[in-house]
Design brief:
The chain has 10 helices and 10 strands. By secondary structure, the protein is an alpha+beta fold. A hairpin with an 8-residue loop joins strand 5 and strand 6. Helix 2 crosses helix 4, helix 4 packs antiparallel against helix 5 and helix 7 packs antiparallel against helix 8. The radius of gyration is 19 Å and the shape is globular. It starts with a strand and ends in a 7-residue tail after the last strand. Bound molecules: (R)-mevalonate. The site of (R)-mevalonate (MEV) has 13 residues, from helix 5 and helix 6.
Length: 316
């Protein structure tokens, strides 16, 4: 019998990259998920990737995916040479930079393997495995992607820079957030971009210190706006966050075109989400009609887009 496991996609509303340096960030699961199916195999580890994806994603991420797979089996003490396995990935999460596809891959496979071998891993253990996979795949991740992919919902996340437990707070939304997720069509390797930003920070610590300080205030205000259900302010802060990300070199012409198009067609705010330098742009709308308008404007420009609402609870 085949064993299954799910891992949810995510968006980061505030604080990608800043989270790597211990600043608090806000992320939410989306209902789209990756589904891993584990079955007995015939030789070693057979990996079949049937996930829908943007063009070029699987090629760009090939090595990252292999490192993740190796880390998952190692941490879970699974030896496919002795117990051949076939792992198939499917699900409705379209793999793209920024959507947490690598974390969803890791959590779904960890859950499916736990089910297959009857290991009875709880969420905290699944999260640990997924974090090890993320580390192997993408260098020095904050842990925000695997946490939100494992637990679902919307969270405030603060990495413990001393290596202890990260601070995670589950957030309740007063009103649903209607989002248009627009794709630049560009895939990036998170590891490379994170390393690049680290180098830029080392070269110019004063600049980063100032931006981190700005972001610290922005995070507090954004948390307050979300708690009050103030969509207008939430959108404004998202656009402010985008400016800070632009300043540290995470934007690109496609991101800027998408942000500009969204705002011109009534979005309350828009920003890149996740790795940056491509990937996805999230645009906040204040109504269903406005969400449709932003979506149509982006599609008209020839970009892929989808509509979603934030705050999906993870159900395994
Ligand atoms: C990637 O989805 C988010 C980054 O902040 C990296 C991380 O926090 O691990 C770029």
């Amino acid at each position: 019998m085949a064993a299954k496991g799910k891992g949810y996609g995510k968006v980061i509303l505030f604080g990608e990259h800043f989270a790597v340096y211990g600043l608090p960030a806000i992320a939410s699961a989306i209902s789209d998920h990756t589904l891993a199916i584990v079955e007995p195999g015939s030789k070693g580890l057979e990996f079949i990737d049937e996930r829908p994806s943007v063009e070029g994603y699987k090629e760009t991420k090939k090595q990252e995916i292999q490192r993740e797979l190796d880390a998952i089996t190692k941490v879970m003490s699974i030896d496919a040479a002795k117990t051949p396995l076939k792992i198939t990935l499917t699900g409705n999460l379209k793999a793209a930079s920024g959507i947490g596809a690598s974390a969803a891959l890791a959590t779904s496979i960890a859950r499916a393997l736990s089910n297959h071998f009857d290991l009875k891993f709880n969420d905290a253990q699944i999260n640990e495995v997924a974090f090890e996979a993320e580390k192997a795949g993408s260098g020095t991740p904050s842990g925000i992607d695997n946490t939100v992919s494992t637990f679902g919902g919307m969270i405030s996340f603060e990495k413990n820079m001393k290596g202890g437990k990260n601070e995670i707070e589950h957030l309740k939304l007063k009103v649903p957030l209607r989002i248009v997720l627009a794709s630049t069509g560009i895939s990036q390797e998170t590891k490379k971009v994170v390393e690049d930003i680290r180098r830029a920070k080392e070269k110019n610590p004063e600049k980063f210190l100032k931006i981190f300080k700005d972001y610290g205030h922005l995070y507090e205000e954004a948390l307050d706006a979300l708690a009050k259900g103030d969509l207008k302010k939430t959108g404004k802060f998202m656009s402010h966050n985008q400016k800070l990300l632009e300043e540290i070199g995470l934007s690109c012409p496609e991101i800027e075109e998408l942000v500009e198009t969204a705002v011109r067609h009534g979005a309350l705010g828009a920003k890149l989400t996740g790795t940056g330098r491509g990937g996805l742009v999230m645009c906040l709308a204040d109504s269903e009609a406005s969400q449709d308008k932003v979506f149509n404007a982006i599609r008209k420009k020839g970009f892929e887009a989808e509509k979603t609402e934030l705050g999906a609870r993870a159900k395994q």
